[in-house]
């Protein structure tokens, strides 16, 4: 019977360095994708945060600020400022969540939908360029893998960073 090596894994750049990190490469991909989009939208002064917020609201009818921040990948404090601006521009509407007077739900307005539709062609062009020459089945497979990794990390977080103790919820 073979003995298991109980020694901790030794870090090495060849095996564990930044160049071998999927998260490093997806971060670079996201950065390049966003930079190209912002360049295309420069005359309209569109930001990635504005696009992401409206994109989420195009898909989710009514959403809390916390969930919107999570799905749009924007810091909670930044999304609050952005929502105030979008509200002043008439692109979103807030209403009290039924059953919880402390929470608001955010909805996109017809004007917000129109604004999103002016941004979408640029985002689509950049995305199409990024995927040029890549088999769509490979893209679907990569997306499935990433979704599985997200589920793994969400479970890891829900169980207290993997130690079995649930984290207290933030209010």
Explain how this protein is built.
With 171 residues, the chain is mostly helical. The chain folds into two domains: 42-132, Winged helix-like DNA-binding domain superfamily/Winged helix DNA-binding domain (Arc Repressor Mutant, subunit A, Orthogonal Bundle), CATH 1.10.10.10; 135-171. Helices cover 59% and strands 10% of the residues. It is built from seven helices and three strands, in the order αααβααββαα. It has helices at residues 13-16, 22-41, 48-59, 65-72, 76-88, 110-130, 136-158; strands at 63-64, 92-97, 100-108. It has a three-stranded antiparallel sheet. Strand 2 (92-97) and strand 3 form a beta hairpin. Helix 3 (48-59) packs across helix 4. The longest helix is centred in the last third of the chain and has 23 residues, at 136-158. The termini are far apart.
List the helices and strands and how they pair.
Elements: H1 13-16, H2 22-41, H3 48-59, E1 63-64, H4 65-72, H5 76-88, E2 92-97, E3 100-108, H6 110-130, H7 136-158
Antiparallel strand pairs: 1-3, 2-3
């Amino acid at each position: 019977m073979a003995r298991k090596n109980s020694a901790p894994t030794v870090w090495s750049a060849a095996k564990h360095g930044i160049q071998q990190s999927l998260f490093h490469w997806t971060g670079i991909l996201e950065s390049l994708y966003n930079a190209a989009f912002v360049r295309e939208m420069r005359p309209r002064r569109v930001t990635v945060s504005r696009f992401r917020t409206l994109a989420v609201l195009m898909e989710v009818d009514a959403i809390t600020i916390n969930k919107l921040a999570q799905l749009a990948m924007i810091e909670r404090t930044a999304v609050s400022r952005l929502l105030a601006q979008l509200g002043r521009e008439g692109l979103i509407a807030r209403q009290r969540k039924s059953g919880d007077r402390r929470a608001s739900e955010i909805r996109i307005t017809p004007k917000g939908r129109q604004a999103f539709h002016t941004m979408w062609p640029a985002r689509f062009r950049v995305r199409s360029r990024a995927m040029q020459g890549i088999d769509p089945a490979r893209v679907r497979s990569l997306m499935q893998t990433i979704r599985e990794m997200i589920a793994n990390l969400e479970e890891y977080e829900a169980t207290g960073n993997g130690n079995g103790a649930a984290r207290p919820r933030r209010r």
